[in-house]
Amino acid sequence: MRLLTMIKRILIEMLRDKRTLALMFIAPLFILSLLYFLFQSNTNQTATLGVRNVNSALVKAIDNKHVKIRQVTSDTSAKSIIRDDDYAGVLTQKGNHLTLTLQNSDQSKSAILKQSLQKGQIQLKSKAAATTIKAQAAALNKMQKSLAAVTRQMGGASKAIQPIRGEQKLAAPNYHLVTHYLYGSQDSTYFDTLLPILIGFVVFFFVFLISGIALLRERTTGTLNRLLATPIKRSEVIVGYLLGYGIFALIQTMLVVLFTIYVFNIQIIGSIWNIFLINIMLAVVALTLGLLISTFASSEFQMVQFIPIVVIPQIFFSGIIPVNQMADWLQPVAKIMPLYYGAQSMSNVIEKGATFVNIAPSLGVLLLFMIVFLALNLLAMRRYRQV
Amino acid sequence: MTNTIQVSNLEQGYGRTVVLKDINLTVTSGEILALIGPSGAGKTTLVSTIMGMLRPMRGQVAVLNTPMPNRPLLAKIGFMAQTDALYSSLTAQENLLFFGAMQGISRKKLREQIPHAAGIVNLVSDLTKQVSDYSGGMKRRLSLAIALVSDPEILILDEPTVGIDPELRQQIWHELHQLAAAGRTILLTTHVMEDAEEADEVMMIRNGEAIAQGTPAELIANYGVSSVEEVFLKAGRQQDATTHND
Ligand SMILES: Nc1ncnc2c1ncn2[C@@H]1O[C@H](COP(=O)(O)OP(=O)(O)OP(=O)(O)O)[C@@H](O)[C@H]1O
Ligand SMILES: [Mg+2]
């Protein structure tokens, strides 16, 4: 009865607070979309390359969809060409000597040019190698024929030549590389790797902020003290908050997950139910953590001050930087971050198709976090009423 | 007449600082006790201790013969805090419904009680307004209505008459006397001497000590003065004299 009234009150308050409502539902989608476009533009990036006196075969080999080739005829220095025409680089050939001058104000463009040049050179070399092999093979063939003629003349020793012919057959094929991707495809971008982590983070962050500030407001306006002057149990207050804000966290989670799936059209290998499950667990942990932290803050401003301490480090350990590549002493730190478990399971479900059994240990840890935070909340509530 | 509130040898404070020393008081059912004293004297601290929000440092506090703090007993106490604690995005009606439900009152009974409680403080026509649109005095009145809405056995009111006009003050006192006549116990704090004169029993607190206690008439007679205000001033001077002698 009390619990229902508590929940109802939270719902009414929330529905009348349009700005918080917008922050909770629109801001996460906005941030995710922004990131989507930021990373998207990066993958379609092209670099303009000026070429001067470069062998046309090499130019053809360098050319790909990320490089725009411009023929340069003037004799001015590469540097001034780059400056004047805003090319990402200029490639000049003098005899056997290639010089690549890069603008290098955007390292990603430099990387594109260097990579394309390297690829082009390899392509040319392998073609040349193939031509040489063909020529050698032809020469060998000739030799064999003449040898055969000789042996025929010498009388029936042709069997000895067979192995040589076999070896030639092996060396001759022109290698063609085909790349297979275990996860994702050749269209995979950094964003795809980042997205599962980002979903988890966005859900965690907004639920943390809003639940924390809500309880804080209740404290600073004195309504919490007033509430505790009624026979309500401390646990009822906490559970009421958990359920009341839990409803909003649930809607927010659904919205974020469905948005990323349908709008960004990302490929989910695992089950979508597991994704909901992970995010709901993350939201509940964020909720209990937000309530707990708010008891140590005495104003909204102080609550915001907790973000660099409580939330930001979690991003670093959530898998944006692979945890197993961190310094040894740093790796255990990740293990005390709820977001680490959430983000990791999200990546595993979305990219590797992890099943419930696979993610169960991580979910268990999140559950443990929730229980610990809940217990601490009950203890912290003692500050306001001792029974 | 049974003792409903019993405080004996109470010492109370925050952390190391002692705010109240050796407080003894008894309130019986049907009685109105007013706590008066200068700002910072410790009135709110005493009230919070009786409510069980604070655990006594020393001494005992019992309400209805039950030692405080005691959570279930809070259902029998209607409380009005010194600072208004209301949900400003809810209407007055919603606030009354919410706190009434928290107090453990059924919805049906609340529907009957709300017009009555709102009537005492003249808020009936403003019940559907959001509290954020209320004036300071209206908020004060709503806080009082919330304390009254559960029709409790004991009323504990921390400065209920602040920001309330004289006409409404009379109306409220009329209601309080009626409640006392019906056997309810009322404990309130105030700075206003007129309030003290309305009460059955007055306790003056100054610097954490009870400096005078009795019915207004007794006090006026004992101190040989003509009003409660003069009692208050004289008792204060006497307290200063004794502490200076120490
Ligand atoms: N939460 C608290 N922590 C520490 N000290 C406190 C706290 N609340 C009150 N005090 C101190 O206790 C003393 C008594 O305060 P209290 O609020 O009981 O006074 P009061 O008689 O109600 O005053 P007023 O008439 O202004 O409401 C004051 O000196 C105050 O500084
Ligand atoms: Mg006070």
UniProtKB/TrEMBL annotation, chain A:
PROSITE patterns: ABC_TM2 (PS51012). It is found in: Cell membrane. This is ABC transporter permease. Belongs to the ABC-2 integral membrane protein family. Residues 154-384 form the ABC transmembrane type-2 domain. InterPro entries: ABC-2_transporter_component, ABC2_TM, ABC2_TM_bact-type. The keyword Transcription does not apply. Keywords: Cell membrane, Membrane, Transmembrane, Transmembrane helix, Transport. It is a multi-pass membrane protein. The chain crosses the membrane at residues 21-39, 194-216, 237-264, 270-292, 304-323, 359-380.
TrEMBL record, chain B:
Residues 5-232 form the ABC transporter domain. PROSITE patterns: ABC_TRANSPORTER_1, ABC_TRANSPORTER_2. The keyword Cell membrane does not apply. It comes from the Bacteria. GO terms for molecular function: ATP binding. CDD domains: ABC_DR_subfamily_A (cd03230). Keywords: ATP-binding, Nucleotide-binding. InterPro entries: AAA+_ATPase, ABC_transporter-like_ATP-bd, ABC_transporter-like_CS, P-loop_NTPase. The keyword Metal-binding does not apply. Pfam families: ABC_tran. This is ABC transporter ATP-binding protein. It comes from Lentilactobacillus fungorum. The lineage of its organism: Bacteria, Bacillati, Bacillota, Bacilli, Lactobacillales.
